[in-house]
Amino acid sequence: MKRSHWSIPYAVFLGIFVVLPLLLVLLYALQDGQGHFTLANITRFFSDSDALGTFAVSLEIAIENTLICILLGYPAAWILANKELNRSAVTIVLFILPMWINALMRTLATAELFNMFGIQLGKGTLLFGMVYDYLPFMIYPIYNVLSKMDKSYAEAAQDLGATPWKVFWKVTVPLSMPGVSSGILMVFMPTVSTFAISEFLTNNKIKLFGTIIQENINSSMWNYGAALALIMLVIIGISTMITGDRKDAEEALI
Amino acid sequence: MAGEEHIIDLRHVSKSFSGKVVLDDINLYIRKGEFVTLLGPSGCGKTTTLRLIAGFLAPDEGEILLDGKDISGIPPHKRPFNTVFQRYALFPHLDVYDNIAFGLKLQKVPSDEIDKRVRKVLKMVSMTDYEDRDVESLSGGQQQRVAIARALVNQPKILLLDEPLAALDLKMRKDMQIELKEMHDQLGITFIYVTHDQEEALTLSDTIVVMNEGRIQQIGTPTDIYNEPVNSFVADFIGESNILNATMIRDHRVSFIGHEFDCVDEGFGEGVPVDVVVRPEDIYFTQDPARAQFTAKVNSCTFKGVHYEMYVDTDNGYELMIQDYDAYPVGSTVMLYIEPDDIQVMVKERTCNTIEGRMKDATHVELLGGEFECLPQPGLEGGEEVIAEVAFDKVDLLDHQDEGELAGEVHFLLYKGDHYHLTILTEDGDHLWVDTDDIWDKGDLVGIDLAKEDIKIRRKNEA
Amino acid sequence: MKKFLAQTYIWILMVLLYAPLLFIAVFSFTESKVLGNWTGFSTKLYANLFTGRMQGSASLISAVENTLLIALVSAFVSMVLGTVAAIGIHNLTGRKKRALTFVNNIPMINPDVITGVSLFLLFIFLHFSQGYLSVILSHISFGTPYVVLSVLPKLRQMNPNIYEAALDLGATPGQALRKVLVPQLRPGMVSGFLLAFTMSLDDFAVTFFTRGTIGLETLSTYIYADARKGGLTPELRPLMTLIFLFILVLLLVINIRQARIQKEKENL
């Protein structure tokens, strides 16, 4: 037997558990409750101001969260990757450690902390909690690219007359963009699709897009839920195309 | 072409990395307009020297002068030098044009001026029409040219080249060597070139600086270095050679391979052990018994294109390499002679291992991080500092590291006609020199043992 | 100065990141039902956790058991399926290889909610009764790609002739796999297993959608339900603290070991 045939069981598995489910999302999204073809689910979304509002809020929160994570995470990643400023591998472990702890647990801990200090739950706490949850996912890919970057690029720039500041902006930053796009994917996508987290961090005051998908599915509105999932898939597809493959980012974690 | 004015002076420069000495008291000057090559095996300190000059490293001790002024405090971006990096270090996010214009843009040179200079330098490296190309789409040779252009466009006082041709294939390397030489002649600026390829160094340089283990071994023109190596390391590293143990009988007379020869060297003293080097093309065949100095049996004969390379066993059992335009049949006995000025006599750096140590007790001595049994040493007490001497052929090498008192690695080997002379690097970083008939390879891990009767001990500070 | 600023920045971030976890850890040592209310040092919550003497303890303990069981089974199946698949993909060429690699990436690109919803629809469509099996199958579907991605680089590093050499020396394909390939691929398989395992432990959304209505709870869904009821069960505090410590020690051990191996390599 040829060894390439060893991929057949997995190909079948992927067909059933990955490809078919996604086709079903499409199928259910384009059907009414009786199984007839319809575009009503899609048009319903675009005429449903609540859903549209939630969609806009989700995008806004996700974009803000991503930006804050870049602003806070890039300097941190840069410092961690700089051997003169950080010599300890333990600091790096401590920064990636939260990624390995259940996000729900971390979110609840944050929410409880806000409660204890009597901080009103709302958009501010939601953003804070999201940044707290996703910052490590921004730091790690950037750190990875920066620490693997060939030192000779910076040296070459210096050699050609660049001050350390210019080296940073003209060479280090552009060359670390792959890490930043991985970070954006790893932060933006989960934030835009998250549910549960926003409920706990805002006491159900702010609903995100993931939550309304969940609510529709849980109340047996499968077709509309599938349509919403389809819309999110489109968003994911677009942002993947813009920023490149999330796979690279995840691969960096291995 | 090369003026007498020094552009770079290195004075007593030393550098260590985490306790390991990489450069040990380097003294070197480079004349304006010269093509200088730093040559040596990997780890000899040549790249470190270049990086010190470029400013990426600071010396631990000593000073580096540019035009007579100390530049230690000047960061690399303010030094008027440019570097061609080993793997080019072209910026992957910029195209060819922007890579080359990088330095000029930083200096805020007007854009039409940048344009003019970039085009000129692209023409010089024969890369016109490549401005818009993505650097990663270029071949190795093309990237190399862009890297050179990027450095030259800034009109540096000195061009530093760190093994720039190492990544190219043989044919392209040869072509680039010629082009580099032409560029140097054309531009008239100083080139400092780092390589481990002796042939490249001989082809390109006005001056070669041979380095090994953080020290300068010899500085000279390519012909000097080839014809008059100062020690067996240089002789072995540059070109093919027969390196042999010899004794200086008196001035102009030296004995090796069991025969006496006339030579041109003098001032070594009488009866002094020395090394001689004879290049394989300098041993001549003769049919005239009156001219012959010794006879030998041809052991092997290989055609090498221009010449034949033969190994012969001499009448006293030494093996020599000879290169000649004529082939002699394997098994035949031939008569040979060597001209006096083809024998290069060199001072022996050492004639036995001299090791500092300390007595443990009357019959044990601590040396090189190990403890050895020795003959009872009357008059020496435990704790006393001593010097131990061990002859080269009295060091036992064992196949397994853990079998010996010490563990080490074969660091360097030299064939001396009838035996091998090895340099062993011990685990603690000390050197031991060993004569052996056994065949070892560079990098072999060995155990080291010393027999008690072979360790000669005297008190330190005693003559 | 620069170093001082950098260190300060790193430490401020670190404190912010760890404040909630530390807060939970501190309050795991008091008996108070409400977080933030210190009623004196006590290890009663730990004792409760281990002896199971608390309100609703049975369901918390079974949630922990379910979580571990699902993670172990799904990670193990993922490891086997993924390793075999990686060998197959490695030997594929051209379009087939690209297609399979692309589909393999989908579960990693997909947000949890989409994976959850789509699998939910699959089980509905196939009239597959949802419970342990559907959750485990779902976890296998998002765990296996990580195994494939961990094993593939090891295959690329491996000398391609080593399998043929084993056959040449008289091994059957099965023996060649067990005695030659698997030992070579083991590091990739282990890291793939660990990734699949932690992904499964971490998962909330996929489990939430595919567990059906038989009352199957994992730790994540338990916490979710618990928090929605208002207020965490106090015994979750010691549990979280222990999980946190366990992961901290595990990561430190792995990293220090890696650093040491790296150092030894450099010294050679």
Number of strands of chain A: 0
Helix-strand category of chain A = mainly alpha
Number of helices of chain A: 13
Number of helices of chain C: 11
Can you tell me the CATH architecture of chain A? Answer: Orthogonal Bundle
Oligomeric composition of the shown chains: heterotrimer
Distance between the termini of chain A: 31 Å
Tell me what you see in this structure:
The complex is a heterotrimer of chains A (254), B (463) and C (268). Helix content of chain A is 77%, strand content 0%. Chain A has 13 helices and no strands. The model of chain B has no long low-confidence stretch (mean pLDDT 90). In chain B, helix 2 crosses helix 3, helix 2 packs parallel to helix 4 and helix 3 crosses helix 4. A six-stranded mixed beta sheet of chain B has the order 6-7-8-3-9-10, sandwiched between helices. Chain B folds into three domains: 227 residues, Rossmann fold (3-Layer(aba) Sandwich); 108 residues, OB fold (Dihydrolipoamide Acetyltransferase, E2P) (Beta Barrel); 107 residues, OB fold (Dihydrolipoamide Acetyltransferase, E2P), CATH 2.40.50. The two termini of chain B are 51 Å apart. Helix content of chain B is 18%, strand content 40%. Chain B is α+β, with helices and mostly antiparallel strands and 463 residues long. Chain C starts with a helix and ends with a helix. Chain C has eleven helices and no strands. Chain C has 268 residues and is mainly α. Chains in contact: A-B, A-C. Chains A and C meet through helix 1, helix 3, helix 4, helix 5 and helix 6 of A and helix 1, helix 3, helix 4, helix 5 and helix 6 of C.
